[in-house]
Amino acid sequence: MQEELGATIKEPVTVYFDSNPHEGLHDNYDVGDSLKEKLRCLVFIPIVSRTYCDSNAFAWQQEFKPFIAQASTGEFNLKVKLQNGNTASRVLPVRIHELETSDIKLFETEINSVMRPIDFVFKAAGVNRALLPIDTKEDNACHTIYRDQINKVANAIQEILFALKNPVKEEANSKEEHFSIQNENKHVIRRILIFTLVLTIAGLGYYILQKTVHLKKPEESGLAILPFTNNTGSPELDYYGVGMASEIRTKISTTNQFNFISSLQATLPYIKTQKSTKEIGEDLNVDFILSGLYQKAGNKIKVEAELLDAETGKLIWSIPFERELNDIFDVQREIAQAVLNKFSINTLASTLKPTQNLEAYSFYIEGYELDSQSNTLDSSVLKSIRLLKKALAIDSLYADAWAALVDAESFVFTNEPYNKQNEMMLTKYRNFVSEHFQGMWQKDIVDGIYTYRVSKHFNEAEKAFRKVLVHDKQNLQALELLASLNKRRFDFALAVKYSRDALTINPASGKDWSNLGEILLAMGDYKNALKAGLKSWELTYSRSSALDAFDIAWRSGEIDKLPENLKNKIPEFKIMKMFFDRKYSEVISAREKGGNWEALASLAYFSLNKEDSARYFANQAIQKNQTYALETYVLAGKKKEAFALIDSFFKHQISSGEDDFFMAHEKTATISVLALGKDYSEATQKLIDLNKELPEFGDYSFFNSPYFDRIKKEYPPFQRALDNVKRQPMIHVEEIIKF
After folding, report:
1. Which runs of E-coded beta strand occur in 7-95?
2. Choosing a second label site near 713 at 20 to 30 A (CA), which of 90, 312, 370, 642?
3. Tens of pLDDT along 403-429?
């Protein structure tokens, strides 16, 4: 704008851009007086959006109306007679959205004339937004382009200034009067006050729509970066939007300036959301939201980013870019820098591009997104591994992809029976990362994952994860792993703390709520464990989250409180409930096909002291590879195989002696086999040893399972041992976690 004025008006004109009239105003200042001098200008240009015409808004009350009042009584009138005989107003509205009729009427009532704006509006099917420098006339239903509209504004200002300097004589005036007016006007400071400014910045190639929003300090603020909207018409390019949000977040978070930044996973549910900015802000507990859209034309990509105030939905600024597709990472960096500039934060540290190959980038983003949403060993984890390997086949030095692959592969390694080949593979991966990514956070995260899940040296793993947090205090992967690690060594206070930190930046993560549920279950806090389990269910509606919630519910005796949609997600829910309600005859008569009926029937027959029938259906369950494998092996008379199954899963997990979580579960599994095998005395002693060796363990509800009724009845010392279990004081979770 300033350049255009310089090319349009001969005499120097000072342009005052009021980026934030709240700036420097204290509570004891009179706002009107503070802005009074700023309003002593020749032309007032309000940028009229859908939110500008609000009689209660600061800009309306403290800028727009005062200027009209001042201009109407000052040395110049509000309305100016132009040289062509027409009349213009010194209020020159620039409209950036199509307005409601009521808003137009409100505006016209204040200026006491018809609203004649210069439009910077882009319209298309379902689109009503501000015009951008990159928009073409063909794409815009208004058939306007940004450069021409800037020129129109400059010409309009030139006409008004010329008319003020050379007033049209209604009737003949004396030479003396005319000379007096001319002389007076030569000393007028030609200031053009533009609130909520439109400012073209030469050489940077973007414009900013700046709102009069008072920005909180970043250290007091939460920021969410939503996946950018794919406006290309090609769904296969959706990953660009997720990738842009991910990279921008990473770059901003490494400055460690914001109080917190919502994780990528937390923002994924808001792709194509119908929720308002305020609702998203409340969901994610943030003050600002960065979002955007992108288009593709040949080898070029057009990106528009916008920063919004989450509470009001007001636009703080909007930035468009047009770059070669291969320069997408430069765009991400520039957007991140623009956000930091707005909050007066130092420039970004120099960072390498994550990869030079866009195909590798697309495989990584898709694989990372799948892996980050799963907390169980399911098809999504295995698919993510395949995608991450594709990314690395294209770019073997893609550090982010290595960090994600080691995380996913080690998760599989931990949740399956020990596999020596998989351990060797992970060792090979770790050595490659150590060799090629020295000094990078990805090396630290891989070191931590390996020493946590493979070599089982928890103290070393903790140091590595904390090193990552020095680089980026809001690295979600490190926070989640620290929560899990501290759960595994029964440091529940730290586990809950890190879960809280993860959920602060990722409140909509079913995975993180599920992790918290596991921690609380191990503590023996069934009430809050169920709350966490139900939160996970509400966010994912997955079968695994439904089963997890059911598992907690039967332990706490609250199966009936489970929501109907969760019950419907588990086809065998009715028969499972029959079993836990001790309705064994109903379980047996149900004879459902599929599910785990044979396994439950064998346990029901055992509870009814019908050993032969229990053995028969246990063998049927084993042949069908149903759940309750340990129990059915014992009931089928295959106790040796049951112990071998325990050994294959737990031996490696507890080899270092640091994994309290798996040691506790190895002991409870052993007690289960002994109880079902009627080795009552040994089962009782193992229960006593469990409480002595792992006093922090609090989940003894497992022994309330129906098939423990027989040992309690037939061998009373077991029940006495259970009654004498000493429990640790409970952590006040409600004071730490907001459910």
Report:
1. 14-18, 43-44, 47-48, 79-81, 87-89, 94-95
2. 642
3. 999 999 999 998 888 889 999 999 999
